[in-house]
Structure to design on (795 residues):
């Protein structure tokens, strides 16, 4: 009875969580304009080596989340979204290794099931706020994302599309895919 | 200061003359001491050369990981559209209009239409109900498909699914529970909207092409109710009732592409031969009032178990009526062999948990007006008491004299006879219950309210109708043809001179919405409190305007009281299996218990469930 919805656009949501024992878990969810899933990718647990920890120091989160995890996830996906969104500022370092426009969304409070996981955030302070029609986000100085792009995208999204909600889905999916990351 | 050199030398060393100091400076003299002779010896300088070792700097290479992390990924099919293009919207809007006109019929008075909510483009659902995969779904990809779906509230809004009333959050939870399940029991207490939850889930699955044909089986009196509910909650879904002569029924059974077909249990038995259709398959079979298959060996149970299908859902407010066997037998339809009689109660409870969802009004409708029970223990009239005593004494003597020929049927007949005397004296027609009912009805009619009176006998209802004629009694029971029943309900609802409706438990205990009634009288008691609860919940439903007063009439010191005592004790079984909910239902009477009402012992061969 139903018919297929022609995908007008694809949005990519990248989220990374850190488990104190098992390391970093990255998830990448591509949604269409109605918020329905098109693709999902996740990394196996990533544990930085001792050397990486020493050498990258306080920039370790950025290196692992942005240059390693986000790069791996975006590379693996078949669809190329118009815009990437993340709830973790450390993922913004992806711009060092990738070309896709990426924005940071201020995330809501984490749910109880993921309360034991850390959302890696860098100390990056040099962010610029941009927004359009209900989309409010931050970008780095070198980002290719613009208010015009956001404006164009928001006009195509379903009216009740909540841009922070998909990150909860990713967190749940990470726990589903990696039971070791669940709270003890 | 000036200085001049002197000729004095010593030891080859020329000394300078003591500088001439100014007259006011102190004089400085040099004195030769003995050790200074050593200075005259020649100086020897020895040179010792040493080679300096040149060291190489050691470099340690630390290899940094250059490989990107490993990933796993899944692609999902292009998201299904729910198919409600704007051209179809008028159907939904017409249904919403109809529903709002019949608002008191259906649902909450505080609810706004969902369409109105959806129109508010800035509205973000306050609650997010997630569709979670059932535990028996093993493949990660399948589980993630459900985990990654948007919240149900978002799905229905983006799909432009309109509802006549905004569903309650617990109803969304029920839909989210049914949606991914191939086997499920929706066991909500009566009045919480099992019908709406099932219809909405079916609607979403049909519109998203996850289902193509659905068979709904319900008791015959409820067929029109289901059709009406489908029209209201899923106006765009075509529904066909399987009825008519054999040729017509055969034709309908053959229509595999009909989205929803509705059959009744009685018809299913008659059409058993017609179901032998090659390649017949249902994507989903729903059993309403699924307790109808509680007896594993009944023909009805055999027929429904044989229906070829992918999904199996059971709707029932009373998954256990008599014993845990009832639940096991419902599971024989859902998942054959999954529950076994030799399992402990705890094991059955654990194993069935992921398949059953049950909510009670007390838990989810905290703002719903209360349901107040009033147990009226009435003294029989003198005439009733005489008849009762002689009937009981004679009956017990007769039963005792029967010896091994005594069957449960004999005991049952005596119970029924005594219960009838508790209603009306067979000789004089006097009745302590009628006297009380008449008095109560005066007050109810004077305040403009309406009441439902339940009895297990149509004859009793006839006897009540005559003396209460001034209150405009309507009748709804097995002798009223099905085609006329809807108009009876409509007249009772709309006509202000009709203050009471007389119903039999069989006809009026399920599927009816009578929430405009604030009084319910149980003139006599049914064998099973679950059936009584269903009857009471005709009035105490979502949308009820005020508190519902339920008067349970019971003749003191009679068989009625003894039956009640036995049934009350049996509620514990239900509590054990559904520990987190209230116990609205309990089991009926076993053969032992029926014999026990008269201190008799059953013969072994007759030890089987009786009620």
């Amino acid at each position: 009875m139903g018919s297929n919805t022609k995908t007008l656009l694809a949005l990519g949501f990248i989220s990374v969580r850190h488990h104190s024992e098992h390391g970093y878990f990255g998830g990448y969810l591509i949604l269409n304009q109605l918020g329905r899933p098109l693709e999902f990718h996740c990394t196996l647990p990533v544990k930085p080596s001792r050397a990486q920890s020493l050498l990258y120091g306080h920039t370790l989160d950025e290196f692992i989340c942005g240059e390693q995890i986000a790069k791996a996830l975006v590379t693996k996906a078949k669809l190329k979204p118009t815009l990437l969104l993340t709830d973790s500022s450390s993922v913004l370092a992806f711009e060092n290794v990738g070309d896709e426009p990426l924005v940071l969304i201020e995330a809501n409070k984490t749910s109880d099931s993921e309360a034991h996981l850390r959302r890696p955030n860098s100390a990056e302070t040099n962010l610029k706020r941009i927004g359009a029609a209900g989309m409010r986000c931050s970008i780095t100085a070198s980002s290719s994302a613009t208010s015009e792009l956001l404006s164009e995208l928001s006009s195509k999204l379903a009216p009740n599309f909540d841009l922070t909600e998909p990150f909860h889905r990713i967190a749940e999916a990470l726990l589903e895919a990696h039971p070791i990351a669940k709270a003890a | 200061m000036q200085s001049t050199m002197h000729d004095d030398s010593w030891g080859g060393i020329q000394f300078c003359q003591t500088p001439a100091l100014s007259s006011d400076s102190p004089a400085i003299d040099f004195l030769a001491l003995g050790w200074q002779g050593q200075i005259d010896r020649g100086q020897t300088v020895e040179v010792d050369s040493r080679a300096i070792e040149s060291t190489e700097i050691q470099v340690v290479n630390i290899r940094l990981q250059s490989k990107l992390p490993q990933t796993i990924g899944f692609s999902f099919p292009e998201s299904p559209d729910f198919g409600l293009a704007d051209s179809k919207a008028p159907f939904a809007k017409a249904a919403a209009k109809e529903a709002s006109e019949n608002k008191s019929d259906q649902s909450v008075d505080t609810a706004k239409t969902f369409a109105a909510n959806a129109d508010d483009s800035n509205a973000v659902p306050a609650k997010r109900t997630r569709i979670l995969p059932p535990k028996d779904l093993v493949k990660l990809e399948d589980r993630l498909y459900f985990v990654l779906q948007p919240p149900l509230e978002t799905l229905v809004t983006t799909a432009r699914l309109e509802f006549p009333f905004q569903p309650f959050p617990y109803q969304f939870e029920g839909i989210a529970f049914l949606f991914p399940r191939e086997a499920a029991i929706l066991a909500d207490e009566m009045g919480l909207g099992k019908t709406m939850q099932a219809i909405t889930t079916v609607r979403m699955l049909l519109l998203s092409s996850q289902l193509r044909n659905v068979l709904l089986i319900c008791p015959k009196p409820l067929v029109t109710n289901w059709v009406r509910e489908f029209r209201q909650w899923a106006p765009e879904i075509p529904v066909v009732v399987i009825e008519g002569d054999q040729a017509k029924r055969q034709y309908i059974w053959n229509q595999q592409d009909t989205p929803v077909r509705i059959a009744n249990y009685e018809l299913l038995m008659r059409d058993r031969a017609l179901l032998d259709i090659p390649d017949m398959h249902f994507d989903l079979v729903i059993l309403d009032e699924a307790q109808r298959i509680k007896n594993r060996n009944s023909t009805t149970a055999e027929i429904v178990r044989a229906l070829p299908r992918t999904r199996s859902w059971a709707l029932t407010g009373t998954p256990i009526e008599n014993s845990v066997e009832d639940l096991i037998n419902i599971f024989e339809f859902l998942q054959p062999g999954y529950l076994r009689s030799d399992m402990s109660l705890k094991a059955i409870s654990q194993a069935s948990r992921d398949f059953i969802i049950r909510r009670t009004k007390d838990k989810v409708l905290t703002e719903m007006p209360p349901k107040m029970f009033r147990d009226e223990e009435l003294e029989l009239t003198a005439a009733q008491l005489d008849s009762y005593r002689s009937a009981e004494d004679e009956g017990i003597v007769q039963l005792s004299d029967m010896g091994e020929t005594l069957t449960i049927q004999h005991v049952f007949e005596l119970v029924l006879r005594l219960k009838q005397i508790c209603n009306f004296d067979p000789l004089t027609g006097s009745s302590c219950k009628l006297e009380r009912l008449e008095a109560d009805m005066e007050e109810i009619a004077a305040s403009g309210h309406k009441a439902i009176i339940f009895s297990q006998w149509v004859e009793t209802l006839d006897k009540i109708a005559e003396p209460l004629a001034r209150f405009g009694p309507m009748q709804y029971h097995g002798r009223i043809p099905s085609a006329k029943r809807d108009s009876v309900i409509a007249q009772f609802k709309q006509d202000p001179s009709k203050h009471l409706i007389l119903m039999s438990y069989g006809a009026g205990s399920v599927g009816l919405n009578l929430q405009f009634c604030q009084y319910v009288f149980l003139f006599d008691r049914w064998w099973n409190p679950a059936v009584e609860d269903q009857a009471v919940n005709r009035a105490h439903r979502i949308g009820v305007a005020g508190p519902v007063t339920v008067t349970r009439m019971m003749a003191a010191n009679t068989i009625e009281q003894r039956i009640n005592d036995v049934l009350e004790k049996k509620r514990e079984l239900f509590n054990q299996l559904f520990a987190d909910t209230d116990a609205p239902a309990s089991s009926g009477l076993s053969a032992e218990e029926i014999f026990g009402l008269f201190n008799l012992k059953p013969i072994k061969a007759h030890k089987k469930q009786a009620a």
User: Anything to note?
Assistant: The longest helix of chain A spans residues 60-76. The longest strand of chain A covers residues 11-19. The mean pLDDT of chain A is 87.
